[in-house]
Amino acid sequence: MGIIALREIIPRTFSHKFGESPTAEIKYHVTTDGPVGTQEVLNTVGILHGTPHPEYSYLLCSQGDVNELDRYHVEVTYSYSVPAIGTEDSDPNPLARADIWRFSTGGAAIPALAYFHGSGNGDVRVLVNSAYDFFEGAMTEESELRCTISGNRAAFPVGVAASVTNCVNLDAYLGAQQYQWKCQGISGQQQVEVVNGVELKYWSVSVELAFRQSGWRLMLPNVGYNYLDGNEKKRAYVVDSESGDKVASSSPVALNSNGSIKSPGTAPDILYRRVHREVNFAPLFGKPPF
């Protein structure tokens, strides 16, 4: 049994609704000398997933339908559409498709340790009261930019996922400075597609990154209930206004970088401490295609 002839059924159809992507259809009529396999029919016509439309090259074949009219006649309908983001290269192989990037914004709660003094954004000062004591437990919100990178991989990158989750960027990345991006997690799901008669199994992998303007290092006021006097640790004190005696402070006091007590009327410094491992993001995650 085999195929005797094939011909295109006229007319071709084309539809383009305002605000939407255009679509098109082409039909073929196949004559056989008996029942033949569906794949043989498709191979004979020769139009595969991702094949450009003969008139509109920006439309790619996205669907093929085979309808057996009788034992000797088969109708094949091909649908064309604008390729989805990540498949513009016309390659139907899911492993050859480009990664898809998504961005979204939100808010995150962080300790309130600094404030903008006056109008404008240039004068940033430590957030303390009039006696230069910091406000314990004060919180504020900071904008957070989230980036999701979705792509297909032959296998799930278990080692990479385990080693880079909760890591921060070592070098400048996506216009941000060091330590402003953090990998929040990597997830994956098994997928299967049939591409031009061949079954392909792969993993759809998603990476989530989060950006903060203040960065991901801990910001801690350099204060404490104890201080260093040379090599000796002593209890922090304040001077009693009536007796003039030194009494144990009921709240943390500002410290110098060497652990000594700061002079009265001096605002505490902010300590930056990195608690996440650093890695180079660019080789791992790449950059947006445009």
Q: Would you kindly provide a brief summary of this structure?
A:
Helix content is 7%, strand content 47%. The protein is mainly beta and 290 residues long.
Task: Write structural notes for this entry.
By secondary structure, this protein is mainly beta. The chain has three domains: 81 residues; 135 residues, no CATH class; 45 residues, no CATH class. Helix content is 7%, strand content 47%. The protein is built from three helices and 20 strands. The strands form eight sheets. A four-stranded antiparallel β-sheet has the order 1-2-4-3, with helices on one face. A four-stranded antiparallel β-sheet has the order 5-8-11-10, with helices on one face. Strands 6-7 form a two-stranded antiparallel sheet. A hairpin with a 2-residue loop joins strand 10 and strand 11. The mean pLDDT is 90.
